[in-house]
Structures are given as structure tokens and as C-alpha cells.
Amino acid sequence: MKKSSKILSLLLAGTMVMSMAGCSGKAEETTAAQTEAAATTEEATTTEQAEDTTAAEETGKTYNVGICQLVQHDALDAATDGFKDALIEELGDGVVFDEQNAQGDPNTCSTIINSFVSGGVDLILANATPALQAAQAGTNEIPILGTSVTEYGVALGIDGFDGTVGGNISGTSDLAPLDEQAAMLHELFPDKKTVGLVYCSAEANSQYQVDTVKAALEELGYNCEYYAFSDSNDLATIVTKACSECEVLYIPTDNTAAANAELVNSICLPAGIPVITGEEGICAGCGVATLSISYYDLGWGTGKMAAKILKGEANISEMPIEYAPQFTKKYNTSICEELNIQIPDDYEPIQ
Description:
By secondary structure, the chain is of the alpha/beta class. It has helices spanning 2-59, 74-91, 106-119, 129-138, 152-156, 178-188, 204-219, 235-245, 255-259, 261-271, 280-286, 295-310, 333-339; strands at residues 63-69, 95-101, 123-127, 144-149, 169-173, 194-200, 223-229, 248-251, 275-277, 289-292, 322-323, 328-331, 348-349. The strands form 2 sheets. It has a 7-stranded mixed beta sheet, sandwiched between helices. α2 links the parallel β1 (63-69) and β2 (95-101). The radius of gyration is 36 Å and the shape is elongated.
């Protein structure tokens, strides 16, 4: 009996061990499967989170753009508006503007540019020649786009300028065909003999324009005289002198003149002296006619250039200066009526 009991006990013990071993094996398999599944889920979650973070970084990128505008007047204001609208169309809420106006003071342009550099903006818009010159002096790293700049070679002191500045500067030019502006003056005033060239001596591109127009007018038989003012303080004196000595005046694309066009008109209109201007904004204030561009469109084109630079689609050092695509003959209806000047049919009234 005892021997049989021992055998039975051994059989029962063996069965229990095998049963426990079987359960242990299944538990280990289940645990391994669960661990592997958890690891896979964790890896997938981590990858998904990384992808979401990358997408957020791409879509959530904010570009800081500094705008330095020399002075407030219609042409420069329109260029700035066009620039901002184009960038907003491209980048939406992903662009933030720091817009500052130098109130006609080149030294203030330098102060503004230095603040942009210290603030680490992503791109600078320099609206007008003195603003571009200040930006050139302020940084050789941050991309700079100029607009409302007539001739970049003259503005930046580049000999043999070939259309591309290189380095960290490019932009758009407001240069209209100066020989055609001279031809416009001749078309409207063929019997006049003396032309006064009124411009700000502090603006390099104004000097360039009057030099070019002078040569074209002299070929057409006119006698031309320079009347340069240093700033707005002596503008009235210079314009008064020009009106007393000349039969017609020419004012180029000049920011100081543009900001003081009403002052010029208050002198020229009573004197009966017509003015041909380099752009529409000045013409609206004191001119008879102009061959002009759209400064809003010019700024828009500059904004499109900026978007390409910020998105890494273009290298600014390889971007040539862009020019206005078209020019329009326009006239000031009220001044033409006041001076009894007949305008040809192919001119458009300034609205």
C-alpha cells in the first residue's frame, strides 16, 4: 500500500509540474507579445509625433521683415503697400513686419537699419536710395531688397554695373526711360527754349536722372540749367529762382520733391511755369505730365522676390535687379486746365 501511494504521489507531482510549466510558457509568450506590441506602438507614436513636430515647424515658421522707408509720400507708400500685400499673399500669417519711416533723414535710416540688424530680422526692405545705402553699410549678411531706387550702380557706387549687385543685395528699380521723358517735354512744349532741372543734390540718383535728361534735351535744342537744393529748407528759394529764369521745369523721381510737391505747386502755378515730372506722385501734386510707373506694382514685384528668398527658392546674390514692365503717359487735368495746356489723346488723366 505504501509503495502504491508513493507511486501515485509521484505521478500527481509530475502532472502538476508539467501543468505549471505549460502555464509558464504561455505566460512568457503572452508577455513577449505584449512587450513587442507596446514597443511597436511606442515607436509609431514617436515617429508620428516627430512628423507632426516637423510639419508644425514648417507651417509655423514666422519671418520677421524690417521695412525702412525714407519718407512718406504717395509713391513710396504705394511701393511699401505692394511689397507687404505680395508677401502676405505668399506667406499669410507667417510674416511679421517692422515698418519704420525715417521722415526724410538719411541718418535716421541708419538708426533704423541698425535696429533691424540687432533684432535679427530675416530680410530688410529698403524703400528709396538713402535707405538702401544705409542698409548696405549696416549688414552684409541679412538679405536686402531695395525698391524705388532708380539706378543701383550709382546708388551703391558700383563701377560697370551689369544689372546684378551680388552679395546680399537685390531689388527693383523705378527707372523710367529718361530719353522718353525728355521727348515728352518736347512734345508738349516745342516752342520753349529754357528748361530748369530741379533736384535734390543729396540724392545720387536724382543727379543721375537730371544729367541724363539734360543731355537728351540739349540734343533737342533746349538750354538747360541745374537748380539743386540740399533739403526741404531751401527748396522754395531754389524753385522760385528757377521759375524766374526758365520757361519750363523738369523734376526727376526725387523723394524730397515728392514730399513737398504742394509747396512746388504753390510757386510754379501762380508763375505760370509748367512742370514735367519723373513720376506720377509728384505730377499729381505739381506737374503737368509724366511718363510713370505703378509704384504699387513695383513693390508687389519686390515682395515676390522676398518670398522666394525667405522660402529658399532663390539666392539673392544671383538675382538681377528687376524693372517696371510698363510705362504710362499721364497728365494732371486741373493744372493743365489752369495753364491752358492741350494734352494729346494718348495721355491718361491721373485719378
